What we know:
It comes from Sphingobium subterraneum. The protein is mainly alpha-helical.
Amino acid sequence: MNVELIDRQEYELARLGLGDAFIRILGYFREDGTKSVDAVEQAMRARNAAALVIPAHTLKGEARQFGAQRLADMAEHIEMVARRCVEYHEDPEELIEFVAELRDCFMATVTALEEDASPLVTRKAGGARRGSSINFGRG
């Protein structure tokens, strides 16, 4: 797991809390997150600060649910700056770099989460990953 992207403790809490639904909810995160990133990019192209707020807010909350702190922090920054831009009637131009990096961060995050959630991945003591040692019925 990429610790720069994911807070391991928060991630493990999510896995425990969601139990058998974890993989399904992770799939929803991929689908909904993609829509949120698309909406953020579209709003940025239109220079519509108000349209940035809700998808950034949604992405922030969903990312935090999985311990995806870097993505959540990026989305939160976009949301907060967009709110300020709405309040003061400013162009959200200062967000261009953040929005440009958002999709790559989202995809890297989802990839890291999905790789770690794979049923073929087992954990060594201390949390390191390795390939499955399951023999699939071979003795």
